[in-house]
Amino acid sequence: QVQLVESGGGLVQPGGSLRLSCVASGFTFAIYEMSWYRQAPGKEREIVGIINSAGVPRNYADSVKGRFAISRDNAKRTLYLQMNSLRPEDTAVYYCKFRGSWGQGTQVTVSS
Fold first, then answer.
1. Which residues 6+ apart lie within 8 Å of 65 measured at CB?
2. What is the model's pLDDT at position 91?
3. For residue 52, how many other CB atoms are within 10 A of its CB?
4. In b/e form, how buried is each residue of 59-92, taking b as 16+ CB within 10 angstroms?
5. CA distance to 42, 84, 96, 109, 111, per residue, from 80 (Å)
6. Average per-residue pLDDT in the chain?
7. Can you tell me the distance from the alpha carbon of 16 to that of 39, in angstroms, rounded to the nearest whole number?
8. Are the beta carbons of 60 and 72 closer than 8 angstroms?
């Protein structure tokens, strides 16, 4: 079955960077579009961005444009989210998504 395992979250100061990873299994990762979402405390889950099978990202949320970058390594079956210039409002649980399947999420906390 589909399994998505995120990692790389943690506590970071404002202005810092983190790189999240999502290792996928149970499907042919290389041929499918993937996406990142996040859910902040008390808010609805929102899309961060999407990447197609060829590695071209699109549909970044306005709030992360120019700061976040989605990439993938099909040989490693891994999706990445590089987050730079982090802000306190980026604090959330970050999830990768494939069709109707979600990972367990990884917590990112931006605080001084």
1. none
2. 98
3. 13
4. ebeeebeeebbbebebeebbbbbebeebeeebbb
5. 25, 13, 9, 18, 22
6. 97
7. 20
8. no
Q: Which residues contact 57 (CB under 8 A, 6 or more apart)?
A: 49, 50, 51, 69, 70, 71
In angstroms, rounded to a whole number, what is the distance separating the alpha carbons of residues 42 and 45?
10
83 contacts: CB under 8 Å, gap ≥ 6 = 17, 18, 19, 20, 64, 67, 68, 90, 108
- Cβ contact 88:78 at 8 Å: no
Q: Are 97 and 59 in contact (CB under 8 A)?
A: no
Full DSSP string of 67-99: TEEEEEEGGGTEEEEEE-S--GGG-EEEEEEET
CA distances from 2 to 10, 80, 103, 109 (A): 25, 18, 9, 27
Please count the residues of the chain.
112
Integer Cα distance of 74 and 33 in angstroms: 11
Mean pLDDT of 52-63: 97
